[in-house]
Design a protein that fits this description.
By secondary structure, this protein is of the alpha/beta class. The chain is built from ten helices and 13 strands. The strands form three sheets. The protein has a six-stranded antiparallel beta sheet with strand order 8-13-10-11-12-9. Strands 3-2-1-4-5 form a five-stranded parallel beta sheet, sandwiched between helices. Strands 6-7 form a two-stranded antiparallel sheet. Helix 7 packs antiparallel against helix 8 (165-172).
């Protein structure tokens, strides 16, 4: 049996600075050994099953894979199904039979807080010892800190919910990514003079603080500055679910049905209820100009 993967281990929600250090080490080891740089994640956040409470994720599974490949150079992403059998698998079995036996790892890379196996009994120290006994390599990436705080997906979720998008972006090392297929809206943006691309948020994904964002948008391989509104339209009739609306500055054409990637960079203001549509239009034009001016510097 050929062991032909260096395997990064983790859930990798958001792909923040800590994840990036781990994934880049994975790529370095793979180049040294002449094998594939791969990452193993789970299709469901373990806490959802372990504690019975869903975790609002920063990214969808497809977005996690996209970020790992694009930003960190990972060549292959393996999503393991996290179910009762996986949750209760003894840590030794997970390491020996799953990582090495099934996934053919010749080297593994994990973070300082990685726990695995039944009741989380597997930890980096045990993994290092097990890898030595199996004759494969193992790197443990230390904690990454910024502004005296540990960089973590949990901290980034809190920052985004609080509207501290710029701090979250520093922790991530890139804009907060939201992707989707542009759907038809009510056409209110076009009626006000600034057509918007409408993206419903994916189920199970965290909704950042409502309001207006400075962002960058990618469509058909091109990037545009974007003024983004995220919320429920309190002025013109509240929506049941939050909607992301992006006005792409410098884009002309039809976006319906296209795949759009939005990188949120900064939260400019919270969601407001205006006394009239005219007041709403004036403020949106002001917000749009703020974004345009930023990217013209």
């Amino acid at each position: 049996m050929e062991h032909n993967r260096v395997l990064a281990l983790g859930f990798f929600d958001g792909i923040h600075l800590g994840h990036a250090a781990l994934l880049k080490k994975t790529c370095e080891r793979a180049r040294e050994l002449g094998v594939t740089a791969a990452a193993m994640s789970f299709d469901t956040h373990p806490d959802t099953l372990v504690f019975g409470t869903p975790v609002p994720l920063l990214n969808t599974m497809a977005e996690r894979e996209f970020l790992m490949r694009r930003l960190c150079g990972i060549e292959e992403v393996i999503f393991a199904h996290f179910d009762e059998a996986m949750m209760h698998m003894p840590w030794e079995t997970f390491a020996e039979e799953y990582l090495v036996g099934q996934l053919h790892a010749c080297h593994v890379v994990c973070g300082h807080d990685f726990h695995f196996g039944d009741r989380g009994q597997g930890n980096p120290e045990r993994l290092l010892e097990k890898c030595r006994s199996l004759g494969i390599g193992c790197d443990v990436i230390p904690e990454i800190r910024l502004d005296g705080q540990c960089v973590s997906s949990t901290a980034i979720r809190t920052l985004l919910q609080q509207g501290a998008c710029e701090t979250a972006v520093r922790y991530l090392g890139h804009g907060h990514l939201v992707t989707g297929t542009v759907c038809r809206g009510a056409g209110r943006g076009a009626g006000l003079g600034f057509p918007t691309a409408n993206l419903p948020l994916s189920d199970g994904v965290l909704a950042p603080a409502f309001g207006v964002y400075r962002a960058e948008a990618e469509v058909d391989g091109r990037a545009y500055p974007a003024c983004v509104n995220l919320g429920v339209h309190p002025t013109v009739g509240a929506l049941k679910k939050p909607l992301l609306e992006a006005n792409l500055i410098g884009f002309s054409g039809d976006l319906y049905g296209k795949e759009l990637a939005i990188w949120l960079q900064a939260h400019l203001r919270g969601e407001l209820r205006f006394e009239s549509v005219e007041a709403l239009r004036a403020r949106v034009l002001y917000d749009r100009q703020l974004v345009a001016d930023f990217y013209q510097k």
